[in-house]
Design a protein that fits this description.
The protein is of the alpha+beta class. The protein has a single domain, classed as Aminopeptidase. The protein contains 3 helices and 7 strands; from the N terminus they run βααβββαβββ. A 4-stranded antiparallel β-sheet has the order 1-2-3-4, with helices on both faces. It has a 3-stranded antiparallel β-sheet with strand order 5-7-6. A hairpin with a 2-residue loop joins strand 2 and strand 3. Helix 1 runs antiparallel to helix 2. The longest helix is centred in the middle third of the chain and has 15 residues. The two termini are 23 Å apart. The relative contact order is 0.16.
Length: 148
């Protein structure tokens, strides 16, 4: 499995946006929209997991995530692995690539927002905050932190 960081204009940018749009996770459509509108700038990246030439998954490293008005940045977000590739530690590889890139940029911490319990802790993330989800104030989202 190869993990590649992408920026707007890269050869895999449009195919990954299409893959995200068609994936089984509803948030993929949001990522596809951001990619098509060139919603990533400066140092932000979209990471793709490739099985030779087949897209197996993706994640992002970006300034912001879905929770507004918090002092945290940057975020690993949009972590997705296709059903056929699950169980092969591809999420860990994507997260590791994003953490390594963040460290290269001199970030000493990286954040992640999720409603999953006991998932990101196994990758070294610690719960630091909890906020209502913008799309449903009755649902709480956890903000995790990882030291680079």
């Amino acid at each position: 499995m190869e993990i590649k960081p992408l920026i707007f204009g890269d050869e895999l940018w449009a195919p990954l946006a299409e893959y995200a749009h068609k994936c089984s996770w509803s948030a993929g459509k949001n990522l596809a929209k951001l990619m098509r509108e060139n919603g990533f700038c400066d140092w932000e990246r979209v990471f793709v997991a490739l099985d030779h030439t087949i897209i197996a998954g993706y994640c992002t490293l970006a300034k912001n995530d879905c929770i507004p008005n918090v002092p945290y940045s940057p975020y690993i977000g949009f972590i997705f692995v296709g059903e056929h590739y699950r169980g092969n530690k591809i999420s860990a590889q994507l997260i590791d690539a994003a953490l390594k890139y963040a460290k290269e940029l001199d970030f000493d911490r990286v954040y992640l927002v999720s409603d999953h319990v006991n998932l990101y802790e196994k990758y070294g993330f610690l719960k630091i905050d909890e906020k209502p989800a913008p799309w449903n104030p009755d649902t709480m989202e956890t903000i995790f932190m990882h030291l680079t």
